[in-house]
What we know:
Elements: E1 2-6, E2 12-19, H1 23-40, E3 43-52, H2 57-70, E4 74-80, H3 84-93, E5 100-104, H4 109-118
Pfam family, one: SpoIIAA-like
Organism: Woeseia oceani
Amino acid sequence: MLQYHWIPDTNIVEFTINGAISRKQFAALVTEVESKIEDYGSVDLLEEIRGIGNIPLAVLWADLRWAVSHWKKIGRVAVVCDKDWVEKVVEVMQPLVAMDVRHFELAEKDKARRWLRDGID
């Protein structure tokens, strides 16, 4: 399941992954994020990963294509997750992308929000 919401009066979109993600859910998230890019010029994302279920290859491919085409419009990404392997992926990914990507534990979700909002660690 993929749920998302916009933090009013900011350019921040939060979304939570907990299980499988469908193409329809991914497309709805992309529509929301693109709407905020239009409104604010760029967007910051908080991605909370509770659990990862089945994600069709077409969704992964669409995600990669979308991310590559929007790198310059994404400022910060906070990945909030207690899974060690996700933290490792974030560490490897950070030097390869234009956006600032950081990992936070689930208990640090408020800290992640502050970092996105204020740029403060």
